Recover the amino acids of this structure.
């Protein structure tokens, strides 16, 4: 009887995702060394997505299980990674101008260099946050978000030792033109530390910058620059980033591109007392600087920085596409051997190949191979043996069907 009396239009959608991925790691993230053997495994993400809409209200619930095949015995009742809520939020559209979103949610903007979903990682990335959006028309859009973190419910202040921010505030403004848009981001993160006298202190890191994207005729491009200031682990931060990528559609099936990134670093012989190493924070960092993840994927933080020059060649026809991307890596600042001898800035060359094939509407097959030709300077930074073969291969099946949809 209650259901029959609902006068608002309702939408209910149910979908799923099954994503197993096999990986062969022979020098992934760091150079493989003598006596070490390559790793191989299958990881899997399983998601159930529920979406509900009624009048001005939208509810999203995305439950996921992330595991490695065989992480527990076949007769065990649980895995080492339990089922978790990837997204669980409510959005209320006050009117055509204002909307509010609260709960566990993805915060992904622009090219995802600073804030992204990190979809390559099976667990992804989402935030517990409150988001206010203001969009007076199609040209202007403003997001303001805040978050505060605690490890558990307490009655007095305790140390927050999760690898996460203690609090976060950000604002992002976007201005849209006919074939391009410009966005401005300001992000303030507070990280809590316990000092030697057991006092708790929260230090703040500010990241700010501009992103520009254009798509006109056969050309498209993305350009950005960011700066970082503040304090982190009792270090004064003074760092910056610049990146750009330009693509051209040669023909219907072919696309070429060229790009580069500079992430400032701190030289090994630096005596200024400042931390000059840029940190991309919550970006989808696997997307950048080579797929073998030698830089900024849980590593290379507070290091010598990076200069990455790369090219891109893509072929796409019907259900198939193939991309080849060579990278030329160099250190942005001085690398020393044994603390005294200066090394060459050149770190190495990586070649990435990725192929995608759409088997049918809800099933995609993806595969990739990467080869790294590292220098002795890379060995100083990452360890391992530069003379050994360093490569990585993977194959992944993505199955994302819509299970149920109801409108009334």
């Amino acid at each position: 009887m209650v259901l029959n009396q609902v006068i608002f239009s309702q939408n209910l959608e149910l979908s799923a995702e099954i994503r197993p991925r096999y990986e062969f790691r022979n020098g992934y993230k760091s150079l493989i060394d003598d006596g070490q053997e390559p790793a191989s495994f299958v990881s899997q993400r399983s998601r159930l997505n529920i979406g509900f809409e009624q009048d001005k209200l939208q509810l999203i619930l995305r439950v996921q299980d992330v595991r490695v095949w065989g992480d527990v015995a076949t007769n065990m009742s649980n895995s080492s990674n339990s089922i978790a809520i990837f997204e669980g939020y409510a959005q209320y559209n006050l009117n055509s101008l204002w909307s509010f979103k609260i709960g566990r949610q993805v915060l992904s903007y622009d090219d995802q260099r600073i804030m992204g979903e990190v979809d390559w990682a099976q667990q992804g990335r989402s935030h517990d946050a409150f988001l206010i959006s203001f969009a007076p028309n199609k040209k202007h859009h403003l997001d303001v978000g805040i978050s505060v973190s605690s490890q558990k419910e307490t009655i007095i202040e305790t140390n927050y030792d999760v690898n996460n921010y203690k609090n976060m505030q950000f604002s992002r403004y976007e201005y849209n033109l006919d074939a391009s848009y410009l966005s401005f981001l300001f992000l303030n993160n507070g990280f809590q530390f316990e000092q030697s006298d057991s006092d708790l202190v929260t230090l703040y890191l500010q990241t700010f910058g501009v992103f520009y994207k254009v798509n006109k005729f056969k050309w498209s491009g993305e350009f950005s620059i960011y700066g970082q200031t503040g304090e982190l682990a009792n270090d004064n931060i003074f760092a910056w980033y610049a990146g750009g990528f330009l693509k051209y559609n040669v023909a219907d099936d072919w696309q070429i591109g060229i790009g580069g990134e500079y992430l400032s670093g701190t030289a090994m012989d630096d005596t200024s007392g400042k931390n000059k190493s840029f940190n991309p924070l919550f970006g989808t960092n696997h997307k950048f600087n080579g797929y073998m993840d030698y830089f900024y994927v849980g590593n290379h933080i507070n290091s010598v920085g990076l200069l990455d020059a790369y090219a891109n060649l893509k072929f796409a026809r019907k259900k198939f596409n193939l991309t080849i991307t060579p990278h030329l890596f160099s250190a942005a600042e001085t690398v020393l051997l044994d603390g005294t001898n200066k090394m060459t800035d050149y770190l190495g060359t990586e070649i990435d190949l990725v192929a995608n094939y759409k088997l049918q509407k809800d099933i995609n097959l993806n595969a990739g191979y990467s080869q790294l030709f590292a220098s002795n300077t890379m060995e100083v930074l990452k360890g391992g043996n530069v003379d050994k073969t360093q490569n990585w291969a993977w194959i992944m099946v993505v199955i994302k069907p819509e299970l149920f949809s109801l409108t009334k």
Remarks:
- The chain has one domain: 9-73+80-152+159-407.
- The radius of gyration is 23 Å.
- The longest strand covers residues 10-26.
